[in-house]
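Fold this sequence, please.
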Amino acid sequence: MTTAAPTSHFKALDACHLQIQEHLAELQRMAKHMESEGLNADDRKLAGEIEAFFSSTSRDHHEQEEKHVFPPLLATGTDEIKAAVQSLQQDHGFIEENWIELGPQMRAISEGNDWFDSAEFQHNVELFLELMNGHIALEESMIYPESKMVWAEAVARRIPHTPRKAA
């Protein structure tokens, strides 16, 4: 059985959430700019950075959650926690499916190509933003605090407690 993620993993996961949120805000801004004024060179450069991030770092982040955060909660969590974890696992699949559509569109933008349908792109961006923002909200409000508690309890069980001597 995989144990809960150590503190350093949580710091990395939390930092990645911040990066994800920054990239999502940039994606939203870029999509609005595209819709109102079209894309400029800065937008195209940004599209490449966003595509690279969600095609690598974000996917790795989800793999780490699947490996370190979710298993202990599925093994020991309440029914509510288990249902939330299962929902997040399903989200990972939906996010990946959406990215399979959106990623190539982002790459095309970054390369100066306009072969995709703009309305479809806007729809994909809205869906991706909705999926990712809801996913992060559930993780941060329920799953990460629960996982941190499970980890702390596991550490406490492994460390022998010695009484302090009176001064």
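The two ends are 43 Å apart (CA to CA). The mean pLDDT is 89.
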